[in-house]
Amino acid sequence: MSALLEPCVGRFRQMIYADLKEVLPIEKRAYEFAWTEGIFRDCLRVGYQCRVLETPHGFIQAYGIMSTAAGEAHILNLCVRPELQGRGLSRQILDHMLELARSLQASTVFLEVRPSNHRAVRLYAKAGFCEIGIRRGYYPAAKGKEDALVLAKEL
C-alpha cells in the first residue's frame, strides 16, 4: 500500500497557500458542494486557524479550518480524504482543532453539520457536542436547500 493510503498519526501543521493544489481536489471528492479556492484563500488571508494533517512523506490526509474570536471558536470545515475515511482521522483532526481552540482561550466551540451526514453527526456527539439549534435552508442541496444542525461544545 502506498504511503498516501496508510493513515498514520502524522503531524499537524499550518496550511499554506501551496497546499491548496492538494486540498482542493480532496475537497471536491469529499463534498458535493465543495468550498471554492477563493473561500480557502480568504480563510488563509484573514488568519483563520487552517491546519493540515500530513504523513511523514508530506501527503495531506485531512484538514481543518476554524475561526476564533471573543472566547469562541467556530469550526468551519473538517475534511478527510475520502479513501481514508472511517480510519479515525476525523477524530484526530477534530481533537487537534479542539486543543487549538483551548490554546487560544476559546471557551465554546460551535459548528454546523448536515443532518444527512450521519457519520459526522456521530463523530461530534461522541466528542461531546450538543445540538443548540437549526439553521433552516443553510446548505445547498441537490433539490433546493438542507437545514444545518448547530452544535456547540464547552471547553
How would you portray this structure in words?
About 30% of the residues lie in helices and about 35% in strands. It is an alpha+beta fold and about 160 residues long. Strands 1-2-3-4-5-7-6 form a seven-stranded mixed sheet. The termini are far apart.
Summarize the topology:
Blueprint: E1 11-14, H1 20-30, H2 37-45, E2 49-54, E3 60-69, E4 72-80, H3 89-103, E5 108-113, H4 118-126, E6 130-141, E7 144-154
Parallel strand pairs: 4-5
Antiparallel strand pairs: 1-2, 2-3, 3-4, 5-7, 6-7
Largest sheet: 7 strands, mixed
Report the count of strand segments. 7
- Number of domains in the coordinates? 1
Count of helical stretches:
4
Shape field: globular
Summarize it.
This protein is an alpha+beta fold and 155 residues long. It contains four helices and seven strands.
Labels describing this entry:
single chain, 37% strand, seven-stranded mixed sheet, alpha+beta, globular, 155 residues, Aminopeptidase
